[in-house]
# Entry
Amino acid sequence: MAGESDGAGHVGEEAGAAHHVRLESLDFEGPLDLLVYLVQKNEVDIWDIPIALVAEQFMEYVNVMTPARLEIAGDFLLMAATLLRIKSQMLLPRPDVGEDEEIEDPRRELVLKIIEYQQFREIADHLREHETDRRQEFAKGWLEAPEGPDPGEPPEPDPERRATLSDLLRAFAVLMREQARDRAVHVEPIRVTIEEKVAFVRERLRREERTTFEDLFVAGEPRSHWIVTFVALLEMAREGEIRLRQGDSFGEIHVYAREADDARQ
Amino acid sequence: MHGSDESRTVELVEALLFAADEPLSSRALAALLDDVTPAAVAGAVERLRADYLREKRAFHIREIAGGWQIVTRPEFAPWVSRLYAASTTPRLTQAALETLAIVAYKQPATRSELESIRGVTVDGVLRTLVERGLVRVAGRAEGIGRPLLYGTTDHFLEYFGLPGLDALPRPEELEILFADRERRADTAGIGQAAPSGGDEIDAAEVEIGESDGGEAADGEHA
# Structure
């Protein structure tokens, strides 16, 4: 994790307030939301963003947030890469050009994006005010479907909903983290194929009605094998051969063969 | 029109607005009445409005989605909302509002246009907005994959109590946070940092017209 923010040093990056920003407890809609926050928080000029500082604070947040919000982590990582690219472009010496020639500021495109996003956020705020006002005035028909499902009889919830990709990624990330804890890092060639792992999962599901996601990752196997197992599971789920179900969020994920799952219903 | 006809029209308009469960436009009202022009209907609505105000009625007439609707006055919300406590719809999330804002100004817009501006995927949000009737598929863009185009619905206007799309603020009316964009233009030694013409930042500068009639979206939105 990043330590002290370093706000000084680079040309044009003298941020007034280079203090450490506590981001962990904050929730952001997306990378642009986070950038707007950082620009405001650091009280920097939007047209002269200290990229090194902002990139560092951005990464700090991404590191904290990624495990919890995998569904949007990719968007944040993409932006992090953009920030780092701009940062490196800023460090390159500028070619000597005449007065007339325009040098594109590497930050310009990003800044225009931030401004555009901010405009729409203000419109969103505006809509929120209208929503609030509108909820103070009642008209007939304002309510949707008063004859909807009888509240006395809530629909029977499926005890096990289908696990989503982010559920799987989360569960897998937890497994990998635990495995990393008691193993020294070493690189090994991958000695197992997806087909072998598919066969392994099939075999397990022939013997048992269902298995848990976790059980399919054999203790003691190298990380590379686990990754192949994971890919095999994704592939089988995509093909419809297996179904992945989860009792509740963050709960255990169960793996069923399709036929077994159909019979269960 | 005679005086008695006129007050008769006012009564009829009141009856229709009272019985309707959605905003009625002057054209819709005129179509329901015999030999009354939309202009006369509009006059009648104004009369009603003034009457309600003067008589301090518990409701007033609001212009919504190109029509009129009788609604209770905001000051009674604490009590009226008890009546509907169990069935009010949840407020929209921040993500939904941001996405809606972009759809409203950029329509018809493809999903990737929305994602590019928000910087995040909008799959789930867009589905919710369509389910809630606030956004609709308004056609398909030309080009690879012919992606779906999205636009706002009349229900969008009703939900926010807007008379029309042009009731949304013009981009230049927005109080932009980073207003001092001129200031540092040439101090950082980075050439042209500030936009000269500003043709890139007028993203929200679009024709805010009728949301209807855009079914046949063609070429230009590819």
